[in-house]
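Help!! Second protein's tokens look totally different from the first
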Amino acid sequence: MANIMLCSCIVFFVALCSDVMANPHCKGVKGAYYPSWAFSTFPPSSIDTSLFTHIYYAFLVPNNTTFKFDIDDETSKLLFNFTSTLRSSVKTLFSVGGGGEGPARFSRMASTSVSRLSFIKSSIEVARKYRFDGFDLDWEFPQNKKDMENFAILLDEWRVEVKKESLATKRPQLLITAAVYFSVDFFLWGEFRSYPVPSINKNLDWINLMFYDYRGSWDTSATGAQAALFDTKSNVSTSYGLSTWIKAGALRSKLIMGLPLYGRTWKLKDPNVDGIGAPAVGVGPGDEGTLTYREIEKFNEENNAKVVYDSATVSAYSVAGTSWIGFDDTNSVAMKLHYAQSQRLRGYFFWAVAGDKDWKISTTAKQSWIIS
């Protein structure tokens, strides 16, 4: 097994180096999102920048009518603090949108050439003013085929404007990335639609694949591995999602594996039946059934929880009484990143950086990723 993994990593190294030779900007990505609401308890200066290459400020949201970014004085101070603290050590991007924003604003923004240009021009202005290296679009999620068509047009026009600005100012081109669904198509809910892979390959520097939130408080009937690498009972898994992107023609050198620094919790129906898929009757501890990895470590220690590594899903879970927590530990993260490298992916990212405990997971990730 070890020799197979070593050979896979060597193949990955050769493939990625070929990409680097063709594109000097094609290097391994070790990213993490920084939630702005954590500023008071976890300022940017708290981040161990030696563990990352890119940090995303989350989130900025454009005006609902003009689709420009209206930055108030408080946010302006946060942005200057963020980039001035970090940019000498890592690349910084600001992420637009987020899961709490919803899709409607972006659907309207992307629907006309005028609104798209307003958004694009403003994004470039914000990036340059606050000294970001680029931007990340977190549109969760395009709802139909028309949205996907407009998503492609938006990326085309964004790249054109970024190139134009770079030539005019003689500055390096700003990075354009996007956070996307775990699968290239939406087969679980809503209208069937697929991401425009040709436009993504052409225009984005990379995409952050959100390989998490497979299970959670929306289904309290049974426990689950919320970021399962494998799932023999369904297609809701990282390995399946990744395969759909690759089959659709997405360049492996633009695919970034998303990893959660949080877990999902359930209340067991019977504390004696506690495996993955065990019957549950509600959410467990945490905010709406969610705990950061830092909180999970504390919970496990204080409650003398039983901690189990599940090799079938490549995940971990802990049990204390009727409380059940599914999460990623150092073992599962290491195995996932070995898998990512065997698939010749570009790198990984975490949601969200403030959730780690003593940098255990982030350090494991960096040590597991053999490409700098």
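Here's the second one for comparison:
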Amino acid sequence: MIRKILGLSILALLVSCGGDDGPPPAPEGAELVFPDENSECTTGVSVNETLSQVTFQWKASKNTESYTLSVVNLDTNVPQTISTSSTSASLSIAKGTPFAWSVTSRSSRSDQVASSETWLFYNAGSQTTYPPFPAQLVSPLSGSTVLKSIANEVVLEWQGADADNDIASFEVFFSTDSLPEDSVGTTNANTMEFPVSVESATVYYWKIITTDEEGNTSDSGVFEFKVY
């Protein structure tokens, strides 16, 4: 009798363990393929004088049923999105304009999503030279609250890129005004950080103007942060 009860207990345990497979696997981020990062896209099919149709491509990611392509016009910050089960999708976008694009992986079996890297490119127009891409402000994050250093400073950090690879300088604008117009310094093309003096319990605003060797400029847009 004891042997029979023990056998039934072991069987119940095995059934119980076998039925618990854990949560479904989350999708993984897709690897972007085309348009290339920090490049000029010249393969678009002209739609009219202002638009061309560009086909975006990426590699299939694991545990993924569908993808959402997001393409953001960096001049207007207006996004375009499209969902697909394929690893490519086409959108009509403005000619001669900088864009950022990324892909989000999704699965009906998981509540989680995964994002790819974000790549920048220029959609070809009539230009023979392009302004730099707007600098991507990295730190402090917009809306964040940060600690100042012992020297009462915070280091501003950004990323810059240019399809022509001819960035000349970055100019840093920093102020307590929501539209910062005070230039506090300029760095060369290889320096993408700048320390600024701050005070506690104060909100600051900053942006970066990027200039290339042709004199073309781009504006990062304004970020803000608060100091403890």
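Reply: Different proteins will give different token patterns, so don't panic. Residues 23 and 206 are 43 Å apart (CA to CA).
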